[in-house]
Amino acid sequence: VSGEIVCLSGGVGGAKLALGLYRVLPPGGLVLGLNTGDDFTHLGLEVWPDFDTALYTLSGLGDRERGWGRADETWSFMDAVRGWGGEDWFNLGDRDLATHVLRTQALRAGQRPAEVADRLARAAGLTARLTPVSDDPVRTVIDTADGALAFQDYFVRHRAQPTIVGVRYEGAETAGLASVLDGYLSRPDIAGVVIAPSNPLLSIGPMLAIEPLRRALKACTAPVVAVTPIVGGAAIKGPTAQNLSDLSMEVSPVAVAGLYSDLIDGFVLDAKDRGQEPAIRDLGLDCRVAQTVMTTDTEKCELAREVIDFLAQLRTRSGLRHGRV
Amino acid sequence: VSGEIVCLSGGVGGAKLALGLYRVLPPGGLVLGLNTGDDFTHLGLEVWPDFDTALYTLSGLGDRERGWGRADETWSFMDAVRGWGGEDWFNLGDRDLATHVLRTQALRAGQRPAEVADRLARAAGLTARLTPVSDDPVRTVIDTADGALAFQDYFVRHRAQPTIVGVRYEGAETAGLASVLDGYLSRPDIAGVVIAPSNPLLSIGPMLAIEPLRRALKACTAPVVAVTPIVGGAAIKGPTAQNLSDLSMEVSPVAVAGLYSDLIDGFVLDAKDRGQEPAIRDLGLDCRVAQTVMTTDTEKCELAREVIDFLAQLRTRSGLRHGRV
Prior knowledge:
By secondary structure, the first copy, chain A, is α/β, with parallel strands linked by helices.
């Protein structure tokens, strides 16, 4: 590989591919843009669930069993919060808390989110660049039959049970693009861009709602691909399938590819869904069939290699999609 | 006993007598005003060491071995802070952290310190009133040969080692008196006021530097007594003796009584120092000799009973000191 890969990712699912890319690419080869739509202020602390999942996953600080939070975690803080009658619906581990406390302190002192992210990634010893997609707040709001819910209210407090009637990304219309991403996306020598297999409505949606990011992706001269979060008509993890069906969308790779089709050149389909290859191509997209369900680290690296190879192949083509620019 | 007792206290030493008073007095009988000179913002969190020591000690949540912090404490947060390269010179336990996080959130949301204190005390199930002596910030600054140090810098980071050349109470000149204390001190039916056996320069000093508190003590028609923090020429705990000698003050109960003599009617001397009774009386103060070193809970309750009895005795006198009003 020559040139960096920019990966846009949500939490647990996306972080698996990000880990594969991080392992396979040379030092400095991965630039990871994280969804901020899940971010919220909880107990006065700035909590960035998707960023932290990526930070912990790539650095090996994460709990591999749970997929979120830190390894060797203890829960005395939550226990004490409960004792004081405080809000205990969102679990914050004692080790994890250090991240939130130090981040909150830095943000309150006037540091930009991207600076704080950069310092955390370096402190964790990462050679990848990690950045929130924007320094400006974007908050995912879920409209349900019973009213609007902030993302974590929907996802954690209500366990993603309420039926969705709409999704909004508050702040997205005025949000700028993080300078790291702006820089890399405008460079002709990057290897390409990957949209990770994250929830298209709740993880990728809040990022793609940021107009400067859409513009940068459309103007990007390197190839852009997405990896399916849907395999065999179901989501690998989380409420993606239910979300799509709540909004009367087809639960299929093609439906997801359709959401991104004005921004991407190629789509990675799972081997189980190879029958949908013609439908992907009908969207004007290149298609790669691969094993997209990542359980082991080996599988994460294998998918990463497929994606890198796919980008390299698209690069050698005479030209990328017209529709993008 | 009839009527409440107002106790002004610092941390560990004072909290022992406060616990005795709390155990001995009927529910609602103790009003505890805490030193705020040690309070500081650490890692973006509002930490109130003396208040928390009292809160934990009275509620039984505290660690009896250490004398500060919570029982059954874990230290994962500190470990993680260290891992991020954060400031680790001030130990914050995981359970203890819940107090700081919830308090910081409440203060940032605009609640007054006294309200926050009241909510914590009630949440801990206490029937005593606990209040910072002022809602306005007072910060103890230690002048040393090597320059000025914030209190916790001196006390924790430098382990109370530097030689003191002066002590200042920043903010004290404009600080008001907490309304709970203002209310009780102006009531003629309280049983009296006790200045706990805390460091006169670093714990009691920051409180007595608040002019409205001095005025309220002078105007108080109930008896006011202080308990010696010096026994046999040494402090029971902490740097009190060293502090007094650094500032060329005598390390004796009489020297401490002298610091308070315009505000108090009586002084409680340790049995070891009964020879100083005449010198105390020469200051125009009544004197009670008692066992002031409190190791067991029984000893805390016994000293509390002595103090209560002393206040009752002073009450029956024809009049309190003229000098006070």
